[in-house]
Amino acid sequence: MTLVLSIEEQRELLDMASVFEALEILYREEAVGRAVTRPRSDVLVPNENGAYGLKSMDGVVPAFNVGVVRINSDVITWPTVRGAKRRVKVPAAPGDRWVGLILLFSMSTGEPLAIMPDGYVQRMRVGGTSGLGVKYLARQDAGVLGILGSGWQAGAQVLAACEARDVERVVVYSPNRENLLRFIQEIGREVKADVLAADSPEAVLGESDVVLCATNALQPIFDGSLLRPGQHLGCIKPCELDKTAYGRVDRLIIHSPDSTPNHVVMDEARVEQLAGDKGWSSDAGGVDWISTPTLSQLITGAAKGRGSDEEVTCFANNMGLGIQFAAVGAKLLELARDRGAGTELPTEWFTQNVHP
Amino acid sequence: MTLVLSIEEQRELLDMASVFEALEILYREEAVGRAVTRPRSDVLVPNENGAYGLKSMDGVVPAFNVGVVRINSDVITWPTVRGAKRRVKVPAAPGDRWVGLILLFSMSTGEPLAIMPDGYVQRMRVGGTSGLGVKYLARQDAGVLGILGSGWQAGAQVLAACEARDVERVVVYSPNRENLLRFIQEIGREVKADVLAADSPEAVLGESDVVLCATNALQPIFDGSLLRPGQHLGCIKPCELDKTAYGRVDRLIIHSPDSTPNHVVMDEARVEQLAGDKGWSSDAGGVDWISTPTLSQLITGAAKGRGSDEEVTCFANNMGLGIQFAAVGAKLLELARDRGAGTELPTEWFTQNVHP
Predict the structure, then answer these.
(1) B4-27: pLDDT as tens digits
(2) Residue in A with minimal Cα distance to B113
(3) To which H or E segment does residue B99 belong?
């Protein structure tokens, strides 16, 4: 049977501890060359008001006996928010919904094991990966967590940091006050730590042992000179950090040397017109993405971690990989089978008696 | 709703005339830059007896208002057949089935319009594309069709050539006599022309106006010096033709300047050991894939077609593209909706209320 798991069912099954477990196995496998990924591609086709984007990435990990394809089918606009262009995915599918899918296949038989929406796993794998950065780089006694951003990704960053360290207090800043207050209420119910709103990025940087950035911004979100000795810094978009911040980091670890997706664009001039100069996320800080050590090397000890309590460490969770969906997706499937969760569809619908 | 269409339902709906229609629109759109493709990638992971292969390609075509992802999840072995290594896909999914999928998405809403096995469309788009090569390159009076090969792809080549020209006789050669006899019986029922078995490639080349190659061979399958003035030649794998054949061709048209997929391989040494030197299809004939005119240019008149009845023309249908699945898939979906065919699944299963 081929399993369909709703977002709600996925939430019930998969917690951050399970994500850490799956990802740690993955990065140890990756370190010995037993995980392969086809880097993300973004096809972008502009229309009158925005664009249609078709994004995909593939991965195969024998330790989980799965291959995975992750697809995003996005209706995109670039509105101007507080004076800056933002890239916004519009929930244009019936019922005001977004479209992203994970397809899991068996390496033994080729059959599709599961087809499911990707949003929850997406959030958990990004959070979990940043969380492993905290686990392997932050000071052991890190007790105050700072969060810049209050969107969907920010919540998973909190869960992950709290999984990695005994966090007592979380301080959060977002320029959108309404979102910020909703966020601290919601996430406050999910973790033991106190969750508080901060008035500025300066306030967050001033008191946090770990600072995680999780915004939609396409430019730096705080002044790097605010960084203090011993802090650990994390970002999902490398462009959230300024050159000063990269300059003050003593130990930088990245997720992947593939720093940009394979862009396939119809009518680039039109996309630039719609999106402004910063239509695509840009790199920042002059980081050498090719030779900087990776999380996989850090976890296995091939790359050195924090050298002292005074060092500033940074994990740039710079680029997602299909193999993360293989690992977390396989874990989710295992949990779903144990508990009989989800909707089973006939595998014959998605297989064939003719040679492909 | 998201439509699932079985291979049997697809066969009922889609004939070669419809495929020609969809593909001609596609290639005219491609010629003006209104069709974009993310080239095929092949992830290959060897195991004890063979390998697991995960292949994907994407395409977006505004004229059809769809984006498409086509996926193959293959269990592969390399047995030695009649002294030569062959790449064989094993039907290892439950019920001895193969796994390939087409996912069609709406460009307007992002929603998944259809998820279906790919084998029939795969065959029809390869055949249809070769057939357009015949339509635009073969002599108008071509009446005898030669086929080298008797497998799954060969049948669609016959249907397509018979769509393009008034074919009176089809002569087929295959080294596997049993397959050959079954093939001429089966295909004989599907076309008006007489379908006959030939004893050798020489016999096929000797009497055919159009010769189409559709084999699994990884090396040339006939002596190019057998080509005669006025013939049209077609191949799916460029390696089926020898250097002499390429040398005798007066006018060569290709499908795509992308001549090799993006290979992502785990343990290349092991793959070579399993597959032999020719594990991957190789190019042949020293063809300059980048600057040779394409089918799209031929159809729109940007590239010159046959110059005289004496010329030898050749269409090398060298590399599949995601946009072909967008075109043929959209046509199939249109036909299915007109007739209420297929199984409808709730689109909510494949969409989400969380940001991906």
Answers:
(1) 999 999 999 999 999 999 999 999
(2) A93
(3) none
**Do the beta carbons of residue B157 and residue B232 sit within 8 Å?**
no
Residues in chain B: 356
Choose from A73, A264, A323 for mutation: most chain B CBs within 10 A.
Answer: A73
- Same domain for B117 and B144? no
Single-letter amino acid, residue A295: L
Residue recorded with tokens 């050195």: A304
Residues facing residue A345 across a β-bridge: A2
- For the cut 80, the answer to whether the pLDDT of residue B259 exceeds it is no
Torsion angle in degrees (nearest 10) through CA of A164, A167, A171, A173: 10
Residue A24 lies inside a defined structural domain of this protein: yes
The predicted-structure confidence for B96-148, as pLDDT tens digits, reads as follows: 999 999 999 999 999 999 999 999 999 999 999 999 999 999 999 999 999 99
Interface contacts (A, B; CB < 8 Å): 265
Please state whether B270 falls in left (phi above 0), alpha (psi between -120 and 50) or beta.
alpha
Length of chain A: 356
Tokens read off for A223: 């002044």
Q: Is residue B99 part of a domain?
A: yes
Amino acid at A8: E
**Interface list for B 33-72 with A (CB within 8 A):** 33-34, 36-38, 41, 43, 45, 47, 52, 54, 56, 58-60, 62, 67, 69, 71-72
Q: Are A37 and B20 in contact (CB under 8 A)?
A: no
Q: Which domain holds residue A192?
A: 122-316
> Tokens in use for A273?
């017109």
Ramachandran assignment for A347, one of left (phi > 0), alpha (psi -120 to 50 degrees), beta (any other): alpha
Q: Which helix (H) or strand (E) holds A68?
A: strand A66-77
User: How crowded is the C-beta side of A83, counted as CA atoms within 13 Å?
Assistant: 2
Contact B352 A119 (CB under 8 A): yes
CB contact under 8 Å between B105 and A353, yes or no, is no
User: How far apart, in whole angstroms, are the C-alpha atoms of residue B343 and residue B356?
Assistant: 27
b vs e for A16-33, b when ≥16 Cβ sit within 10 Å of the residue's Cβ?
bebbbebbbbbbebbbee
Q: What region, left, alpha or beta, does residue B280 occupy, with left being phi > 0 and alpha being psi -120 to 50 degrees?
A: beta
Number of domains in chain B: 2
Cα separations in angstroms, B259 against A267, B159, B333: 24, 26, 29
Q: Which of B70, B75, B153 is nearest to B117 (CA)?
A: B70
Q: What is the CATH number of the domain that holds A41?
A: 3.30.1780.10
Model confidence at B180, pLDDT cuts 50, 70, 90, reads very high
Ramachandran angles phi, psi of A271, nearest 5°: -65, -40
